[in-house]
Amino acid sequence: xxxxxxxxxxxxxxxxxxxxxxxxxxxxxxxxxxxxxxxxxxxxxxxxxxxxxxxxxxxxxxxxxxxxxxxxxxxxxxxxxxxxxxxxxxxxxxxxxxxxxxxxxxxxxxxxxxxxxxxxxxxxxxxxxxxxxxxxxxxxxxxxxxxxxxxxxxxxxxxxxxxxxxxxxxxxxxxxxxxxxxxxxxxxxxxxxxxxxxxxxxxxxxxxxxxxxxxxxxxxxxxxxxxxxxxxxxxxxxxxxxxxxxxxxxxxxxxxxxxxxxxxxxxxxxxxxxxxxxxxxxxxxxxxxxxxxxxxxxxxxxxxxxxxxxxxxxxxxxxxxxxxxxxxxxxxxxx
Length: 335
Description:
This protein has eleven helices and twelve strands. By secondary structure, it is α/β, with parallel strands linked by helices. Helix 2 runs parallel beside helix 3. It is globular and about 60 Å long. The mean pLDDT is 92.
């Protein structure tokens, strides 16, 4: 196990397999910045499946056991079940998951499960047509995403988590309906405080609905009680319904940051290692990899980057004066 300067182990690896997305969520990829003329990375600049699998194996040797595929929207990457199968076969991978907006999931859930994917997290910010259309930036309704969730359940992808970013004035009035839709099912809805990831989403603190308010809104409809985390470093605060109808989660990185337990490394679309969701600089792994670096040399680069890691942006956010500097965009490294 490799540890950083704050004694945090490397346990999780999140891999962005594409920078493209079929949504234009204002909090991630606003349409004003990502119009028809926007130039995404050409295919040759993306890590190949072979390169991703090789780097994943090296990360597992350093202690990573949980692998998550992200984007952009990962289901837009051609042949994704092939990559899933390669990662599934790597010794040391104990948990293989994927985060998706769910729009293409109905067609791909079964092939992904057959390839070795264990579970899936689906982004669904609201069941309300207008609110969801605003949040996805395409005026899409939620039905196709709901169909993807049903397909994932039928395919045996479990547990299914549903992530909802909560933004003041947009969808906070729909939280109870979303919780009600999945109450009594094995699925876990997780409400996420709107975060200042990247530089282009126009984030302001008054757009944030604090975790305490989210819980209070939900408790007006469904009595809740807090429960213990499943493991050290779990990002969501867990609550269960008092009538045993399941659980929900709250991800409160703005008002209750959890940097002290963070064990996550992120591999960007273009092959850079980032040690924080709010990172400004990454360590290039693609260049050395394509220049013939040995496994030992690549492992050294990863180890050095992690050992130097002192990131705790969410804990420091409120004490910063001025701009924290340019940050990597969410669509390049996933959530």
